[in-house]
Amino acid sequence: MTSTMPQADHVLRTDYQRSVAEYWNAEKDPVNIRLGEVDGYYHHHYGLGDYDPSVLEGPEETRDQRIIEELHRLETAQADVLLDHLGNIRPEDRIMDTGSGRGGTSFMAHQRFGCHVDGVSISQQQVDFANGQAEERGVSDKVAFHFRNMLDTGFDTGSLRASWNNESTMYVDLFELFSEHARLLRHGGRYVTITGCYNDVTGGRSKAVSRIDEHYTCNIHPRSAYFRAMAANGLVPINVVDLTDQTIPYWELRAQSSVATGIEDPFLTAYKEGSFHYLLIAADRI
Question: How many CB atoms lie within 10 A of CB 91?
C-alpha cells in the first residue's frame, strides 16, 4: 500500500517541520509516559468528563498515583468519544491515525473494530515506540506506524474508510491537511478531529492561547478555518460538538498532579474566558 521508507528530507520539508520533529523525538514528558504506564495505552491528548473527587482523598502516599490513574481514565474516554464518531467500521476496512504519537488511539481503534490501522508521524522516535508496542501486543499484522508527513502520506487514493487527527491539526496548514484526507478517503468515508481552536468572536489569539502555542511549538487555528478548509476539500460536517466544558475538569485535576507542566493555567484561563474552544468535528467525504 505504501512505497519504501522515505528519507528524512522527503518527510521533513521545512525548518518548522524539522523543529517539531526534534521536539517530539526528544519528548519524554511524564504527563504522557506515566499515564501510559497505567495500562499500556500511551496517548498524546487531553481528557474528557468529570473526575472522581475521591482521588484527592485517602492516604497521602498514594494520592498522586490515584490522580495519574484518573487522568489516564479521562484521556482514554476522550479517545473513545473520537472513535464513537468514525461510523460503521468493518474488520476489512483500513483507517488512519494522522499524527499518531505513541499509538494509543490506534490500538484502541483496532481493539474496537478489528480493522487495519495505519499511523503516521514525523517523529521517528514515536514511530519506533508505537511499532514496538504493536509487536508486544501481537497486532503488527494489523496495526503499523510509518515515518510520514500527514500532508503527503504516500498512501493510495481512496484507500481509507476513515481517518482522524487527535490534537495534531495545529501543526499544519488546514487546507493542505484536508486535501490529503479527502484524497485518502473513499466516497462516503468519515474524517474526525478533536482539536483546540481559538474563538473568532474574541478577535484573534488571546494571551493565554499564545502561551499554549509557544509551549507546544504549534500554531492554533481559528474555529472558522476548519470549516473553510473542509468545505474547500469536499468534507461535509455531520457532527460538531463543543467539548470545552467537558475538558475543564481534566485540566483542574492535572494542575494538582505531579505531572503538571505549567501550561495548565493558560488552558484553564483560555477555556473559561471563552477565547479557546475544544471541538470535535466529524465530516463525510463527498
Answer: 10
The residue type of 146 is: H
| 133, burial (CB in 10 Å: exposed 0-12, middle 13-18, buried 19+) | buried
Across the strands, what pairs with 195?
A: 279
Show the CA angle centred on residue 107, arms to residues 105 and 108, nearest 5°. Answer: 60
Place of cell 495505552: 41
More confidently predicted of 203 and 90: 90
Residues facing 163 on adjacent strands:
96, 191
Taking alpha carbons only, the member of 67, 63, 79 closest to residue 38 is 67
For the chain, the maximum distance between any two Cα atoms, rounded to a whole number of angstroms, is 55
Instruction: Specify the residue for cell string 470545552.
Output: 244
What is the rounded CA–CA span in Å between residue 190 and residue 109?
A: 14
Indicate the SS3 state at residue 285.
Answer: strand
Strand partners, 197: 277
Statement: the pTM of the whole predicted model exceeds 0.90: yes
Q: What band does 10 get if pLDDT is binned at 50, 70 and 90?
A: confident
> Hey, which bits of the chain come out as E strands?
94-98, 116-121, 143-147, 160-166, 185-198, 235-242, 276-285
Asked if residues 79 and 106 have their Cβ atoms less than 8 Å apart, the reply is no
Instruction: Give the pLDDT mean for 202-212.
Output: 94
* 138: helix, strand or coil: coil
Q: What is the mean pLDDT of the chain?
A: 95
N-term to C-term CA, the chain: 23
